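During the second half of the funding period, the structural biology subgroup turned its attention to how the target accommodates small molecules. The most pressing case was D-mannonic acid, which had performed well in the primary screen but for which no bound structure existed. We therefore specified the complex as follows and requested a full 3D prediction, including the ligand pose.
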Amino acid sequence: MPADAPRLSRAGSAPRRSIVHLGPGAFFRAFNAVFTEEAMAAEGGDWGITAVSLRSAGARDQMAPQSGAYTSVTLSESGNRAQVIGAIVEVLVAPEDPEAVLAALADPAVKIVSLTITEKGYSHNPATGALRLEDVDIAHDLANSAAPRSAIGFIVEALARRRAAGVAPFTVLSCDNLPSNGHLAKGVTLDFARARDAGLAAWIEAEVPFPATMVDRITPATTQADVDALAAAEGYLDPACVVHESFRQWVIEDRFAQGRPAWEAAGVQFVQNVDAHETMKLRCLNGTHSTLAYLGYLAGLETISDAAHDPLFAALLERLWAVEILPTVPQPEGEDLPAYTAALLDRYRDRAIRHRLWQIAMDGSQKLPQRLLGTIADQRAKGVLPQGLCLAVAAWMRYVGGVDEAGQPIDVRDPLAARLKAESDGAGDAAGKVAVLLAFGEVFPEALATDAAFRAAVTEAYSRLATEGARAAIEGYLSGAA
Ligand code: CS2
């Protein structure tokens, strides 16, 4: 990196704020903020974004010296494209000053509160969708409403202040990889509000829109090499830059309380119901992402493109899509499903995108229900046993055991990591380990946990992974399926 490269600085004035976004991570900066920037460029409007970090000061420390500006880098083997984004006008750090965040959320000029807080940010039970009132941050926020820690706590307190002041509510726009994410966000918000004040909950239920969305852009974590490459190419330093694929798709239910940016000018699709698009994406993309993450990691691979270029894993993907996943996906308006999965394989093979399997493997206990278990449950309801997806579940079970095929420790990142490992370690043979992990009601719905054929298939797959390894287990699945 050029040692004397100047720091990126904002060109021109910042737009006035009308959006608060919770979760200023890489995906948000590669996705929401880029669409909003382009919508304002095309159709005007003051849709500036106050981004709020609920945990750490990292994003703020990276972006404050740049007045919120940063670079969105589209990666390509034929040459990267840099786009400076100015839609973010400030970054707040909630633990430093929760009142500043609440003031922003209660600002009458704020019309949309959007979320990329990851699956675990909803403090819900993944198997049921209900708010976990015993969650440590939720319990804190119910007792300390003026100094919340959780996204839900901030949203409800801000809505309470708007209601008390006679200010119209904002729209809550969930942009996380969860089925019916708008419905889920509404459900946990109402659960929290009811625990505080029934009248407030009734007002929220009647007045606050929670449109659902499907979001899609592959965005690996930014590395120092990415920052250095940008500095070398563009002549400035930008530690807040994000790198991503060219592809992007945002499908939104068009239900907003006080308007929205002209996102359609940036290519956003507005539909009445996003469920079919969500199911397509969560099961075809995220389901195979997680499958590759666990089986690929156990097989010693590092990235999605490594796996997608490996003939064995490519054959696994093709069979999973054609036989086990697509039969459970309803036809989304305007989509060609076989073409969609063929395009996915091309996206996965893009060697310009170094998407680490370890990154995707994170938080599996929060991801499996919507990525794999829903598909399996739908197949089981038809009397079908999807052996390939059972192998993927078994691979997750092996992964959370914390030891790879070379006997090396795995750095498992998951809210339930300690319990998953402890109970798995103490469970004896494959059947015992599968049994204790299926007993995690936060992950496995009762119908699957008590399904003998599913349990047997996962146990058999777990045994093959333990004795023969991931590659042999995949070969066995493919040859047995032939
Ligand atoms: C990935 C997703 O990290 C993960 O769990 O599966 O972030 C995936 O890259 C995005 O959903 C793609 O749109």
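Two results from this model are relevant to the next phase. The domain at 275-479 is CATH 1.10.1040.10 (N-(1-d-carboxylethyl)-l-norvaline Dehydrogenase; domain 2). The longest strand covers residues 17-22.
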